[in-house]
Amino acid sequence: MTQQLILIAGPYRSGTDGVQARIDENLARLENAALAVYQRGHVPVIGEWLALPLAKAAGSQSVGDEISEAMLYPVAHRLISKCDAIYRIAGESRGADLDIEVAQKLGLAVYTSLDSIPQA
């Protein structure tokens, strides 16, 4: 198997009630999944790694404000179009579910367990 660019999709703000510590915990879960994907020989990416700095540069003051809302999903969906696959980690997330819909329309592989991701 050749290396794949794999988007990690899962809860970021979902289930946090806007509490930054919980958002940070969700990001850590996404990043731990990214590390596991990297260790399988692939290149992982998380949409927030790109969207959050872009939103800040555009003037966003906090996650969930109008500017960040205008950036988070569109950045992820542009990124998905460049990916080979998505790894959907556990947890309720409307955004991650939308990511899966985009990926399926593009015919990308969707992994739901680490073991289903082939070793590169």
Walkthrough of the structure:
The chain has four helices and four strands. The N and C termini lie close together (5 Å). Strand 1, helix 1 and strand 2 form a beta-alpha-beta unit. The model has no long low-confidence stretch (mean pLDDT 95). It is globular, with a radius of gyration of 14 Å. It has 120 residues and is an alpha/beta fold. The chain has a four-stranded parallel β-sheet with strand order 2-1-3-4. The chain is 49% helix and 12% strand.
Main sheet makeup: 4 strands, parallel
In angstroms, what is the radius of gyration? Answer: 14 Å
How far from one another are the termini? 5 Å
Beta-strand percentage range: 5-15%
Structural class: alpha/beta
- Helix percentage: 40-55%
Count of DSSP E strands?
4
Order of helices and strands: EHEHHEHE
Mean pLDDT: 95
Main β-sheet, spatial strand arrangement: 2-1-3-4
Individual helix count: 4
CA-based shape? globular
Low-confidence stretches: none
